[in-house]
Amino acid sequence: MNHEATSLPSLVQNLVKNWEIEASFKQNLADWRTVDHPNYTFAINGGPPQSAEHMLKVGTYNAIIAEPNEFYSPRTSDFASSHKTFKRMMPTFAWEVTEVYSGPPQVAFRWRHWGEMQNDYVGFNDKGEKVTVPAHGKTISIQGVTVATVNDKVQLQKVETWFDPLNMFRQIAPHGIINKEVVVEPKADGEGVKVGDLQIGPGDAVASAKGSDDTKRTHEEMRAVRTTECPFMNKE
Question: For a pLDDT cut of 90, what percent of the chain falls above it?
Fold first, then answer.
């Protein structure tokens, strides 16, 4: 959808695109220019507000999906592995603003994310099972509503988003999950679980030296890409 360059929908779309680019590319929070640092929070579906530090720790996909489900669990994935899971399956995931309901300081708008499932989906679900779904080559499209509060510099202070994460997975596997493989080694209560070589503690995303190295390498790779090629939100 093309918006007039100086229109409110265009300004909102550019602000959110730049915000997602910073969340994916910039590992140092001091480099985030789209947010009001002392006042910034992010929340999904009425859940508790999260900080920018949280998003950097778990990654944009995990922060937005938030809750484990039968297809995928953010608790068994870190920044690097989550980006590999979704970018491998859907190399281009375009984003646009479809409608703006109100202007600053509280901006309410509807958005759309879409892409083509070009490769198999492989992820770990809420039971620690490895889930595999063959690529079907069709378009996956999700929609949501966001209410964002901005300051007088048009920096994000409070971002609240509502959408159905399962809608994406239902489109990934329209005929249900094709294959599940048990790979988790359960630990005693309170000690978390182990998925492959990743040790996941209660409430943690991932605690693993390998995961940390992968995350650092992913950030380095992403910084080498032009901002117009954001891995989380490419523009067609």
Answer: 56
Which tokens is 90 given?
């859907």
Orientation angle between helical segments 8-25 and 209-223, nearest 10 degrees = 130
How far is 108 from 100, CA to CA, in rounded Å? 6
- Nearest CA to 233 out of 112, 72, 134, 81 is that of 112
- The predicted pLDDT at position 183 comes to 77
How does 63-74 read in b/e, with b if 16+ C-beta sit within 10 Å?
bbbbebebbbbb
**Digit-coded pLDDT (tens) for 150-192:** 999 999 999 999 999 999 999 999 988 778 888 754 443 444 4
User: Which tokens sit at 56?
Assistant: 């950097």
Q: Helix or strand or coil: residue 59? A: coil
pLDDT tens digits along 78-113? 888 998 999 999 999 898 999 999 989 999 999 999
Query: Which residues are registered as beta bridge partners of 111?
Result: 97, 144
Q: Is the peptide bond before 105 cis (omega within 30 degrees of 0)?
A: yes
Strand order in the sheet with 41-44: 41-44, 156-163, 139-150, 106-116, 93-102
Contact of 168 with 140, CB cutoff 8 Å: yes
Structure tokens at 193: 């679980």
Residues β-bridged to residue 195 = 184, 198
Please compute, for residue 26, the number of CA atoms within 13 A of its CA located in the half-sphere on the CB side: 17
